[in-house]
Every structure is written in structure tokens, then in C-alpha cells.
Design a protein that fits this description.
It is built from five helices and three strands. The protein has helices at about 10, 15-25, 30-35, 40-55, 75-95, and strands at about 30, 55-65, 70-75. Strand 2 (about 55-65) and strand 3 (about 70-75) form a beta hairpin.
């Protein structure tokens, strides 16, 4: 199991999504990531540049001919280690509450009230 290490660069929701997609495959297409994350080309490019500058991703362009190019994104070993460490840190933070329903434990309070100590239907305890 990787060492838990919270990573501020990865934590932003768009970057976390990008890293998850890159970790799941090889040569993930730019347009696939863009469509899945729901951002513009320019916004995704900025996020990719930041992750690439940190050494977490590589971005490569393939010439398909006739002016067409395909942009592919790959995670690096350093990026994979950072991503796995970030996921482990998130698991450490949310682990104890994982799998609990929102109402779980509501009956644990004295008098059977809700999580704020209020009795159901205005009853006095």
C-alpha cells in the first residue's frame, strides 16, 4: 500500500479526475478527458501543463496526416506514485466513515432523537 501523502496539486477536482483517467490507461486521448471532465480545451490544457511541469504526466502529440493531430496523455512513475499516495491519504481521511449511510447512528443519541438531539415530530424527551 502506498504511503499516504496529500498532494495539493492533484487535489483540485479537475486534476484529480485527469490523474485517475491517466492512471487507468495508456495514451488517454485529450478529447476523451475533456469530454469526461466537462471543461474547455484551454482549461484542460492548463491543468495538463501544470501536471506535466510537476513530472506527473507526459503529453504527446501524434501526427495523423492532413493536419490532424491526436494528443495523448500518460501518467509517469512519479505521477502514479503521487496519485496513489493522494488516494491513500484520502482513504485515511474518510476511511472510518466510508460505507455509512447518512442516517447511520442517528438512533445512537439519548432519547432516540436525531443527530442534533431533537425528538421526532416535536416530542419532548
Amino acid at each position: 500500500m502506498p504511503e499516504p501523502r496529500f498532494d495539493e496539486l492533484i487535489h483540485a477536482s479537475t486534476r484529480l479526475s485527469v490523474m485517475a483517467m491517466a492512471a487507468a490507461g495508456t495514451g488517454v486521448e485529450f478529447r476523451f478527458i475533456r469530454d469526461q471532465v466537462g471543461v474547455s480545451d484551454s482549461v484542460l490544457s492548463k491543468h495538463l501543463s501544470a501536471l506535466e511541469s510537476a513530472g506527473y504526466l507526459t503529453v504527446r502529440k501524434i501526427d495523423l496526416g492532413r493536419g490532424w493531430r491526436r494528443t495523448l496523455v500518460d501518467i509517469t512513475e512519479q505521477g502514479d506514485a503521487a496519485f496513489q499516495g493522494h488516494v491513500a491519504a484520502l482513504d485515511a481521511i474518510i476511511g472510518p466513515s466510508a460505507g455509512r449511510s447518512p442516517a447511520a447512528g442517528a438512533d445512537d443519541y439519548a432519547g432516540g432523537g436525531d443527530a442534533h438531539g431533537r425528538e421526532p415530530d416535536g416530542a419532548q424527551g
